[in-house]
């Protein structure tokens, strides 16, 4: 009887552990982070996309509100509404600045040196009272270029957040710096696609995001959060290798071998079937002359009746069938291959391939270059 009761108690304990609630992630912020319904599409805030980076151990509570500053978010009651749902162990992400800068509106404006950090301090005090981990987030950059140079529109406000984090020994995600580095690397024209530049809606908004921008900024936030808390990485479902380093433009100028774009029509070479193969093929040797490239990458089209003859391999090689069908011979076994099939041949094997059917057989081929 005692042993049965002990077993029941252990099972109940395990069930209790398994049912532990997820850690809540609260977002206090402005329109760059807030949620938008489908009627506002394609506009989204980065807070809308944050949950997509996290597993079920975290649940995002996005309380960010459009048009609010650190002052008006509290004055209008959003602060108290958020606070009542907080529990010890939760996380609070705090991002303000865009509307604190609006000197023309005394209900939102906070000068950056004293008032702005004082209002932010109330969020830190709440977090400490609740046993919540606060993380300060500098305001995400506006997309404002002048003759190709990205302007820093947050200046003293971003610095005020950095200084407050340092004084209060609070975690900091420097989203201003990370987003400016990303925008500089993307450039003036290409970066429009991330923001609300929507010609069909007659919008040219350099503050708010389309979905791709919201996802990018959420990625930058999670990347910064992981640096503060490495244990978060176990609960991040997507890679956070996003954005660009501060050195991106200098790195680009210092490239010994610049990146390239080519079109297959400019490099097509008609050839007989390689390795004793029959018929006529067309090779597209992409980047054949690019220096310091350690692999060969090409497209090969096998016309009707053409093939690549049998040969033994001394290196790894991959064939990927883009279109048509063929008969692939690998180590004495022939099989039909079609679009979507990929074939890896390892050193020591023999292989051959021939076109089959009415359509051209189109292959992508990749292998390592010979070391000279």
Q: Mean of residue pLDDT?
A: 95
Order of helices and strands: HEEHEHHEHEEEHEHHEEHHEEEEEEEEEE
Query: What is the percent of helical residues?
Result: 25-40%
Strand order of the largest sheet: 11-12-13-20-15-18
Helix-strand category? alpha+beta
Q: Biggest β-sheet: count, sense, barrel? A: 6 strands, antiparallel
Q: Please mark out the parts with pLDDT under 50 across 5 or more consecutive residues, or reply none.
A: none
Cα-to-Cα separation, first versus last residue = 78 Å
Which geometry do the CA atoms define? elongated
How much strand content do the residues show?
A: 25-35%
Over all CA atoms, what is the radius of gyration?
A: 29 Å
The strand count comes to 20
Structure description:
With 372 residues, the protein is α+β, with helices and mostly antiparallel strands. The protein is 28% helix and 28% strand. The protein has a 6-stranded antiparallel sheet, with no helix packed on it. A 5-stranded parallel sheet has the order 3-1-4-5-8, with helices on both faces. A hairpin with an 8-residue loop joins strand 12 (280-286) and strand 13. Helix 5 (115-130) packs parallel to helix 6. It is elongated, with a radius of gyration of 29 Å. The model has no long low-confidence stretch (mean pLDDT 95).
């Amino acid at each position: 009887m005692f042993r049965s009761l002990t077993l029941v108690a252990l099972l109940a304990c395990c069930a209790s552990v398994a049912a532990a609630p997820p850690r809540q992630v609260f977002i206090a912020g402005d329109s760059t982070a807030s949620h938008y319904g489908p009627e506002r599409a394609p506009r989204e805030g980065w807070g809308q996309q944050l949950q997509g980076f996290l597993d079920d151990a975290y649940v995002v509570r996005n309380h960010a509100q459009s048009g609010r500053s650190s002052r008006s978010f509290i004055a209008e009651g959003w602060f108290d509404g958020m606070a009542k749902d907080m529990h010890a162990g939760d996380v609070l992400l705090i991002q303000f600045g865009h509307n604190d800068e609006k000197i023309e509106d005394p209900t939102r404006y906070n000068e950056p040196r004293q008032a702005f950090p004082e209002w932010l301090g109330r969020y830190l005090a709440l977090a400490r009272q609740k046993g919540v981990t606060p993380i300060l987030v500098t305001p995400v950059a506006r997309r404002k270029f002048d003759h190709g140079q990205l302007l820093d529109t947050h200046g003293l406000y971003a610095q005020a957040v950095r200084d407050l984090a340092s004084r209060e020994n609070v975690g900091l995600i420097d989203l201003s710096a990370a987003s400016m580095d990303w925008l500089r690397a993307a450039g003036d024209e290409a970066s429009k696609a991330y923001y609300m530049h929507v010609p069909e809606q007659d919008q040219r908004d350099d503050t708010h995001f389309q979905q791709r921008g919201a996802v990018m900024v959420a990625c930058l936030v999670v990347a910064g959060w992981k640096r503060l808390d490495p244990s978060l990485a176990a609960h991040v479902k997507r890679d956070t290798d996003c954005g660009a380093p501060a050195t991106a433009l200098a790195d680009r100028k210092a490239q010994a071998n610049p990146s390239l774009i080519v079109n297959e029509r400019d490099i097509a070479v008609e050839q007989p079937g390689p390795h004793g193969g029959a018929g006529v093929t067309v090779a597209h040797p992409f980047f054949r002359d690019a220096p310091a490239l350690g692999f060969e990458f090409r497209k090969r089209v096998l016309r009707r009746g053409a093939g690549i003859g049998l040969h033994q391999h001394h290196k790894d090689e991959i064939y990927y069938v883009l279109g048509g069908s063929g008969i692939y011979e690998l180590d004495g076994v022939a099989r039909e291959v079609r679009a979507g099939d990929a074939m890896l041949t390892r050193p020591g094997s023999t292989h051959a391939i021939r076109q089959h059917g009415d359509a051209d057989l189109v292959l992508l081929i990749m292998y390592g270059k010979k070391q000279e």
